[in-house]
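Our preliminary data section would be incomplete without showing what the modeling component actually yields. Below, a chain of 111 amino acids is followed by its predicted structure, encoded as tokens that our downstream tools consume directly.
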Amino acid sequence: MRRIEKEIFGTGPEHDARGNTNVFEYHESLADIATVLAFLVVAFRVFFIFKKKEFHKASLVMYCLLTLICSASIFAVGYFGGKMVYDQGVGVKMDGKYVNPPKTEAFNHDN
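Predicted structure:
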């Protein structure tokens, strides 16, 4: 029942992207990964601040590597988000109407 409600009354990025893009799943997965990595970077830094420890060579290398990977994942999220909006028109409205409206027939499973 909930699936039917979601298809009929769908709102949000999943609804806007329906049938219009093949990169939404990459964007969503990378956003989850970027969030976890950002929390790890913050936790790593807070740990060193509260313990009043200085970075040693190994911990500094780990911190820089984690920060670099986090930054790359954030850039990838932005790239795929921009691709959906600017290349594929997902979620873009002009005069109150979608430029590239969601395609409900792409998710009908009545075959």
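The two ends are 19 Å apart (CA to CA). The helical segments are 2-9, 13-17, 24-50, 57-87. Preliminary results of this kind motivate Aim 1 of the renewal.
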